[in-house]
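Collaborator request, handled under Task 6.
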Amino acid sequence: QFQIADGLDGSGSHTVYNQTITNTDTKSFILFCFRPIQITSCSGSILWKNLNPNSPFTQRPIILHAAKENEENIKQFMNDIINPDTEQMQNEGFYIDNNLHVKVEVIRSMFDGKMAAILSGA
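Structure tokens returned to the collaborator:
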């Protein structure tokens, strides 16, 4: 089983020079990323463990979305893009060399307070 943590955060006030992006708010971005936590065997033995899971060097970006971090954009982003892919990954896993099936467990933990409030509906 491959255990990962994922999350997202937004940032704004970026300077964008001479870009042909059609999004009307190109100064704000939402980054969705994950970090590997550990890989375990079918018997539960740990085969590999991330010794520095909070290090910026272990974070892997998945999507950089040009949008402002607000409730409407975050919910649309999560519902349309992230949640379906995450559910499929957890339900189906993936195969290596067509014969090794890897199950995936996703832990949603990489959020700041503003993002957690938006996603929880608080």
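The cover message to the collaborator said: "The chain has a mean pLDDT of 86. The radius of gyration is 17 Å. Please let us know whether this matches your experimental observations."
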